[in-house]
Each structure stands twice: as structure tokens, then as C-alpha cells.
Amino acid sequence: MKNSLYFGMFLITFSILTFTSCKDDEPTDATFNMNVSGLEDLGDNFRYEGWLIVDGSPVTAGIFSVDANGQMSTSTFTVSESDLSSASTYVLTIEPFPDSDPSPSDVHVLAGDFSGNSASLTVNHGAALGTNFSGASGGYILATPTDGEMNNENSGVWFLDPGAGPGAALNLPTLPTGWAYEGWAVINGTPVSTGTFTSVTGADNSAPFSGTMGGPPFPGEDFLMNAPSGLSFPTDLSEGAIVISVEPVPDNSPAPFAIKPLMGAVPAGAADHTFYNMGNISGDTNPTGTVTR
User: Fold this and answer.
1) d(Cα 207, Cα 204) in Å, to the nearest integer?
2) Can you tell me the distance from the alpha carbon of 185 to that of 114, in angstroms, rounded to the nearest whole number?
3) Cα-flanking dihedrals φ and ψ of residue 137, to 5°?
4) How far, rounded to the nearest angstrom, does the alpha carbon of residue 289 sit from its chain's CA centroid?
5) Distance, CA of 74 to CA of 102 (rounded, Å)
6) Which one of 34, 127, 144, 245 has the fewest CB atoms closer than 10 angstroms to its CB?
7) What per-residue string of b and e applies to 155-171 under the rule 16 or more CB within 10 Å gives b?
């Protein structure tokens, strides 16, 4: 009788210990909050995804979208408590949606190292773009070299300096994989692309509006044909604006991305083949954020 009693008590004690041990082994979740400003709506085919860097490896930390007003679809995220507490860095990327690849893309927008319970997110962190573009500078001329005639000269913009040979007119940092520069002319309030590029001393990737003759070996565009809906070419870029943006690759938006290092207002009565400087506006356009755990 005593042996049966002892054996029964042993089974009960063993069951309690086993149940407690299993519960202790279960991972626990924790939440963190994120605040960002300056991000763009990515449309239906892309999303922002956060990543915690834990022991040097990325761990997904939530997916969200941003609407046309810059509002995040959610700002609170749930992750493993152990991953959150041991994370050294937070990185924000742009990912395809839906996305079958469990690894981060090359398009790193923001990053920041944790200091205590928070991380300040910037574009100039080494795990993001690696620069804040504060040293960027440049200029442009108005000209239409691809029609071979000296007319409609205010209907084209080229990022070259005629006083340098001609030479490059843009001073821009080299971008990491996943990003490219894009030029824009704002015509009657509508931004129209001059093409994307990664080198300031070569032609950009397209010339859909230019004439039939070759252009100079620099980024730029003549707006002579194939005008987008609502515009007519040739045009006069006077009183418009010229912009350089930083774009994700691939890019599914026909509009400029949030990061815009340079902008120049085209003066009224602008003279063609005259060099005009652009202003650095990176401090006004760079996205920023904070993660709090």
C-alpha cells in the first residue's frame, strides 16, 4: 500500500515538473513601437519590412505599408522577446509583395543601432544607404541637342557643366546596390523623368522624349516628343523645377521617391546653355525614424 502511494505521488510530481519545464521552454513574445516620417506609398506590389540584426543575422520584425499621407498601416510589432532584447541593429527594407524570399532585399532604406531601448533610424547608417547626401551638389543647363537644331532649347535639361569641357555637373555619392539616381523636370506641376543613372559621367538609361540624334554623355533629356497625358512637347522649362531623387531598384512608381538630394528652380526667362546651380534639400526630404523596445 505504501509503495502504491509513493508511486502515485511520484507520477503526479513528475507530471507537474514536465508540464512546467515545457512551458518554460516555450518562446515568449514582446512588442516594440516604430515611428517614421518621410516614407512614400509603395503601391500594391511592395511593402516595407523591418529586420532585427541578432548575432549578425537578420530576423524579420514585421511588414507594413504607408498611405498617401505618410501614415503607417501599423506602428506596433510583435517579435520573439529574446530576439528583441538581444538585437543590436534595426534595418528597414523595401520588399516585393507578396514575397517568397525570407531574406532581406538589397533596398535598405533606414537603419539604426540600439542604444538601450531605442534606435534612431537614418539613411546614412552603414546598413542603409550609408550617406545623408549633405555633401551633394550640382547644376544643369537647358538645351535640346537631340534635335540637331538651335530651337526649342528651353525644352531640354542636361546635367553637364559647359565650362568644364563640358564635364560632369553633379557631385553625388556612389549608391549601394538596390538604389539609383533619377533626374526630373517639373513641368506645369507634373514631374517628368529624365532617366535613371548611377554614373554622373555617362548617359542615363532611357530617352523616351528626346529627338533622333544622340545626346551628350551625361544624364539628361530633351522633351520633344511622346509627351505624357496632360502635357505638350516641345515646352519651356522656365519657372519649373529640376530635381535629383534617389530611387529604389526595382521601382514601381512613376513619381519621385522621398529621398531628394538636389533641387533647382528654373528662373523665369531662363537662358539656354547657361549653367544653373541646384540647392541641397536632403535635410528636408530624408526619411527618419525611431524604434522603441
Assistant:
1) 8
2) 40
3) -155, 170
4) 13
5) 21
6) 127
7) bbbbbbbeeeeeebbbe
pLDDT in tens, 171-180: 999 999 999 9
Distance (Å, whole) CA 273 – CA 216: 13
Domain ranges of the chain: 29-130, 137-282
The pTM of the full predicted model, rounded to 2 decimals, is 0.89
List C-alpha distances in Å: 143 to 5, 50, 55, 137, 225: 100, 44, 54, 20, 15
Residue 281 pLDDT greater than 60, yes or no: yes
- Say how far apart CA 284 and CA 178 lie, in whole Å: 22
pLDDT of 239 over the 50 cut: yes
Secondary structure of the chain as H, E, C letters: CHHHHHHHHHHHHHHHHHHHHHHHHCCCEEEEEEEEECCCCCCCCEEEEEEEEECCEEEEEEEECECCCCCECCCEEEEEHHHHHHCCEEEEEEEECCCCCCCCCCCEEEEEEEECCEEEEECCCCCCCCCCCCCCEEEEEECCHHHCCCCCHHHEEECEEHHHCCEECEECCCCCCCEEEEEEEEECCEEEEEEEECCCCCCCCCCCCCCCCCCCCCCEEECCCCCCCCCCCCCCCCCCEEEEEEEECCCCCCCCCCCCCEEEECCCCCCCCCCEEEEECHHHHCCEEEEEC
CA–CA distance from 37 to each of 113, 251, 278 (Å)? 18, 20, 25
Exposed e or buried b per residue across 12-39, where buried means at least 16 C-beta atoms within 10 angstroms of its C-beta: eeeeeeeeeeeeeeeeeeeebebebebb
Q: If pLDDT is split at 50, 70 and 90, which confidence band does 27 have?
A: confident
Report CA dihedral (237, 201, 38, 101) to the nearest 10 degrees.
Answer: 130
